[in-house]
Design a protein that fits this description.
The protein is of the alpha+beta class. About 55% of the residues lie in helices and about 10% in strands.
């Protein structure tokens, strides 16, 4: 599944930044990022996210990724990573982290196995081939932290391949042979370590987390299509909170308003036309549910008053909402079939 270029910056990142003594405002200013980028769970694109990490390197040194990772623990990690701590064993944990990591960022974590080894390779499809050293260090350290905390054993990698220059701090943390200036970033574990059980394995909690995160993955898959499909999905999700604005949708997609307007135009659509189409589609769905009052539907579609909804619906269907619902009830299955075809 293609992932959208959309990074959800977890609150744990900002907690780690604060523990390093770095001010959010200073980091945002260094990366030339807007103030809203400093909010917990803000959405950025890959290059904006990279700018945060490069800012950290400039303000706190090249080894800041290792320091930030070690300052945190599983309790403050996002659910997409925390689920690993309650897995059955190391192999199960890595499998879950690989599957759910896309909920936070468009980072690809690829796992390959043979009889003796397990290799984890990391890449950023939207990164342009230049990933901040500190971000790679933090990812590697987080994976090893998960392995060590989960098993309760001081697991060491078999070896590593890193694109970064030689680092005494990285050597001290990972304590394994490291190939510096490599073509790819890879963590190689012993296959036998994958079978080590996790001390906090919790079947019931794991089932709950799996269910919630799987639903999030399904929602994310709907966000991974064209820009028009992404905007439609966001409009359907956000309408009940009021009339969505181009600005808010652009922020969720981590693009500027101008860029979103241009990309919609390239696909032959406009924001206003998508908003009207989505409201029309949802109006028919809601009216088909006889338990919903017309006033409720108007509110769920983001209209300020019932009259505005009535006028819009009459433009779409040449009949009032109550008239459409009455006609549908009288015609029964036949109109339902016709609706499905439209």
């Amino acid at each position: 599944m293609k992932m959208p270029d959309r990074v959800k910056v977890p609150a744990a990142f900002w907690l780690g930044v604060e523990r390093l003594g770095v001010k959010r405002s200073e980091l945002l200013r260094w990366g030339s990022l807007p103030l809203q980028a400093g909010q917990d769970n803000a959405h950025l694109n890959t290059m904006q996210f990279f700018a945060l990490w490069r800012g950290l390197e400039a303000l706190s040194g090249p080894e800041v990724g290792l320091r930030l990772s070690q300052s945190l623990n599983g309790a403050v990690m996002p659910p997409s990573f925390m689920v690993g701590y309650h897995s059955r064993d190391l192999e199960d944990a890595l499998s879950r982290v690989t599957r759910f990591k896309m909920l936070c960022a468009p980072e690809v974590l690829d796992i390959t196995r043979d009889r003796e080894t397990c290799t984890l390779s990391m890449s950023w499809p939207y990164g342009g081939g230049s990933v901040p050293i500190s971000l790679t260090d933090a990812t590697m350290a987080s994976l090893m932290g998960l392995a060590r905390a989960g098993t309760g054993k001081e697991i060491l990698p078999l070896r590593m391949e890193l694109q970064r220059p030689q680092s005494d701090a990285a050597s001290a943390y990972f304590r394994c042979p490291i190939r510096w200036h490599a073509a790819h970033d890879r963590l190689i574990l012993r296959a036998s370590d994958l079978r080590l059980p996790f001390e906090k394995y919790n079947r019931e909690l794991l089932a709950l987390l799996d269910g919630a995160l799987s639903a999030d993955v399904e929602a994310a898959s709907q966000m991974a299509g064209t820009v028009v499909e992404q905007v439609r999905w966001l409009l359907r999700r956000n309408l009940t909170a009021g009339r969505p604005e181009l600005r808010s949708i652009a922020q969720e997609l981590a693009v500027s308003e101008r860029s979103l307007h241009r990309r919609l135009s390239e696909e032959g659509q406009s924001f206003q036309s998508l908003l009207a189409d989505t409201r029309h589609e949802l109006a028919r769905e809601y009216l088909a549910d006889g338990t919903l009052e017309i006033a409720e539907i108007a509110y769920m579609l983001g209209y300020d008053d019932q009259g505005s909804f009535y006028r819009a619906f009459q433009r779409w269907e040449s009949v009032t909402p109550s008239g459409w619902r009455e006609r549908r009830q009288h015609r029964g299955p036949r109109i339902a079939a016709e609706d499905a075809e439209q």
